[in-house]
DNA sequence: GGGGCGATGTGAGTTAACGCACAGAGAGAA
DNA sequence: TTCTCTCTGTGCGTTAACTCACATCGCCCC
């Protein structure tokens, strides 16, 4: 049973009773309807209609087709309604991904967004690997670093995340603060575990801090911040994260060179949907407080 | 949601995951598949798939379509199986119509046919009006008289029904038998109620028997036979019917001029079906005993 | 009974859908 | 990295499907 359009044609003929009437409803010429019926009967090897001057009356097979196609028509109508409607409503699932270091900013916003749309389920993905928008793994991604140049991805600037060096009050009381790069040899540092990290502050540390002075390394920014707080050494933390923790002292003011630009990335096919647009607007609104100035 | 073929295309893309694979399954070029998807998405206003180099992955709307179309595909497959299969089996309903005077012959055959096919329901229609095959009122009709020339009807000769004049034994004992037409003026007759009857014996009676001698008239042949049997007069009855009744005496031997040819008529659209063919063969086999010689 | 109407059917012309060929882009392997 | 394979995407020519027009046939109403 291929050629579903022919089934639809036969369905309308059976429903209405005449070829002409069905042709009008279908918006095609009645000759087309006749050819569809003939082709379908030929393929099935059974007459679906008895032809007479007043129209077509379905045989048993035609009546059977009428019932099945009626159900199909209903199903498709409902489907079309759901699909068209869903394009304009915020429901189902919203999948957001970002680097782990942004969870303290995003999670409250996600929770508030879910609260605003009760029909919505939020999934927040963080992980080592990059979740790929083109495979439908997420609707929205928050990416850091250089402008993502993936084709089929819509990229918007989000905000600039400032970083600088922090130390715990206990560390300062014990070791003091370095006044310039020349003092780094006498201090201990907390840094990134990944030597290939492309974060600007991480590369700065690789170039300006002797490797042997980096005595605590972790791939997780939260672990690094905890290490700094525990007095393990001096290390980079985002200004916003540091502000939420008691007991951290800025070693130097934030430098623009250390800042990491953040980008909002969506897949082209999903970017126009109401759900994604609603979340992007919601996120931008709530992130105004995070902007540097 | 028009263009069910596009839904089928999208269904296969969602099911298989690639345009090329779906195109192969559908037996069309992959460009056609792409155009179908694009047209469907355009019409719905929602992306059904996320496109990437490895194939198409369904969005939520695409997944929804996949579910619905999967069910539709199943339904259509079952429908095709039923329709194709039903063409080769004898089941459902068999509707046979004839003039009322043939019921004593047809009913036993219909009962035996039903007994041979337990899945079958038989309907036997008799009535004043002609049941019309082209409106699907019956599968098979047994017609008398001239060759039916309805277009779209398949006509086969059935057998020749012989008629002649009968009288009851009581009538003969009381009035004797006429030896020729000249004696008709002294006899009483049972005849047809309808002066426009086209039956050859009825017209013969109109022409050869004085109207005032026809003292019992009925439209029903069974009533006429009963009247003859009750001694009301001389009248025509089919030879086969008369043979089943005790107490009837042939006034004259059957004449070919009085015989009524019977025809088996089916609608063109139903004639080829196994069910109709099975019944026609069954009926012909059982009617061999009725043939004159 | 006859004219009009609406239905089915068929042949000819036209449009739109399809197949073909090639370009481009990732993904995986050497 | 580079090569290769596969899949997507698009312009162009062709074919098949569709529209159009006309013929035909029944039915209904006048």
Automatic annotation (TrEMBL), chains A, B:
Pfam families in the cross-refs: HTH_1, LysR_substrate
Highest taxon of source: Bacteria
Protein's GO biological process: DNA-templated transcription
Keywords of this entry: DNA-binding, Transcription, Transcription regulation
Gene Ontology MF term list: DNA-binding transcription factor activity; sequence-specific DNA binding
Keyword DNA-binding: yes
Domain spans labelled HTH lysR-type: 13-59
PROSITE patterns to which the protein is assigned, alphabetical: HTH_LYSR
Family to which this protein belongs: Belongs to the LysR transcriptional regulatory family.
Protein name as annotated: Transcriptional regulator, LysR family
Species for this entry: Roseovarius marisflavi
């Amino acid at each position: 049973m291929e050629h579903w359009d022919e089934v639809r044609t036969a369905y309308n003929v059976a429903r209405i009773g005449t070829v002409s009437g069905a042709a009008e409803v279908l918006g095609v010429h009645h000759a087309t309807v006749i050819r569809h019926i003939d082709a379908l009967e030929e393929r099935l090897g059974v007459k679906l209609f008895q032809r007479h001057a007043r129209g077509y009356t379905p045989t048993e097979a035609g009546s059977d087709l009428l019932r099945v196609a009626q159900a199909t028509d209903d199903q498709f109508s409902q489907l079309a309604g759901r699909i068209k409607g869903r394009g304009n409503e915020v429901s189902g699932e919203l999948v957001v991904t970002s680097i782990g270091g942004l969870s303290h900013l995003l999670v409250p916003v996600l929770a508030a967004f879910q609260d605003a749309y009760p029909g919505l389920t939020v999934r927040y993905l963080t992980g080592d690997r990059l979740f790929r928008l083109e495979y439908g793994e997420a609707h929205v991604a928050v990416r850091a670093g250089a402008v993502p140049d993936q084709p089929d991805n819509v990229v918007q600037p989000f905000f600039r995340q400032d970083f600088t060096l922090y130390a715990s009050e206990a560390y300062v009381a014990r070791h003091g603060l370095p006044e310039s790069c020349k003092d780094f040899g006498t201090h201990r540092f907390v840094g990134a575990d990944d030597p290939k990290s492309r974060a600007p502050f991480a590369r700065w540390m690789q170039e300006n801090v002797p490797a042997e002075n980096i005595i605590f390394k972790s791939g997780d920014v939260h672990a690094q911040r905890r290490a700094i707080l525990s007095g393990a050494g001096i290390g980079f933390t985002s200004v916003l994260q540091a502000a939420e923790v008691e007991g951290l002292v800025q070693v130097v003011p934030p430098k623009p060179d250390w800042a990491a630009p953040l980008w909002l990335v969506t897949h082209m096919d999903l970017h126009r949907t109401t759900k994604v647009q609603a979340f992007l607007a919601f996120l931008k609104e709530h992130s105004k407080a995070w902007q540097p100035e």
